[in-house]
Amino acid sequence: MAPVSEPPSRSIETSGPSGPIELLPAAAARVNDVVTAIPSDRWNEPSPCTKWTVRDVLNHLTSEHLWVPHLLSGETVQAVGAQYEGDVLGADAVSAWTSAITASLMAWADLDTCERRVHTSMGQIPAHEYAHQMLIDLTVHGWDLAQGAHVGFEPHPAAVEQSLAYEAPRVGQSVVAGLFRPALPAVSSHPMDRLLALLGRDPSGSADAPDGRCEHDHLPRSP
Questions:
Q1: Domain range list for the chain
Q2: Rounded to an integer, what distance in angstroms lies between the CA atom of residue 119 and that of residue 72?
Q3: Residue 175 to residues 2, 15, 217: CA-CA distances in angstroms?
Q4: Is 22 within 8 Å of 16 (Cβ atoms)?
Q5: Cβ–Cβ < 8 Å for 31, 65
Q6: What whole-number percentage of the chain has pLDDT above 90?
Q7: Phi then psi for 134, rounded to 5 degrees?
Q8: Contact, 163 vs 194, CB < 8 A?
Q9: How far, in Å, CA of 5 to CA of 154, rounded?
């Protein structure tokens, strides 16, 4: 990953009460609220992620969190292999998600140092960097799920601020070029609106947003 040449406009914490690792349980809880509220007839509804249904978005998130215990324990991407490719939700999407996020959060809680090196598809990165990117996915994909399923979503304010502070310099320096939709003009000064626009999403939920991907660069690909 390219180095950040200028400091972001907000403080990015790597540990402490507002660090990304510490914010993961709260961000996950907000996603849990969405997942458990999805009506049974809306899992196949389209989401803001191009070509992905609501179920596909949750499958992606679930797959990401199934990887966490492996990567935090030092395993390589090659060692884990293809076991989490394809459908990981099975017949009970909510239970599959709950099991995966529970194991993921336990692995994060057991982490001995935020500087531990983690293997990813883009090379080794510190655990706090991995946590930042996982925090963004929880926050933004929580919105994707809610938009597609037409249910409410209240992102954790500190998670939004940390995600915006982390991602803005990366987008500005094209570190994530080709991995997300091109940034859109911010429609308001609200942090969540700014984060969504930064990652190519229309905060109004318009279906006319430009085509693009929804996944992060280092995370396992799902479907």
A1: 20-156
A2: 8
A3: 6, 23, 10
A4: yes
A5: no
A6: 64
A7: -70, -35
A8: no
A9: 33
| Secondary structure of residue 84 in the 3-state scheme | coil
pLDDT tens-digit series, residues 46-90: 999 888 999 999 999 999 999 999 999 999 999 999 999 999 999
Tokens of 73: 């324990």
Query: Hey, what are 56's tokens?
Result: 């596909």
Mean pLDDT within 194-206: 84
Structure tokens at 164: 């915006």
Sign of CA pseudo-dihedral 84, 86, 90, 93: positive
Which of 63, 83, 71 shows the shortest CA–CA distance to 141?
Answer: 63
pLDDT in tens, 101-126: 999 999 999 998 888 899 988 889 99
Q: How much is the pLDDT for 12?
A: 39
Give the domain 20-156 fold. Answer: Four Helix Bundle (Hemerythrin (Met), subunit A) (1.20.120)
Distance, CA of 22 to chain centre:
15
pLDDT tens digits for 166-176? Answer: 988 877 545 44
Cβ-proximal residues to 102 (8 Å cutoff; 6+ apart), any chain: none
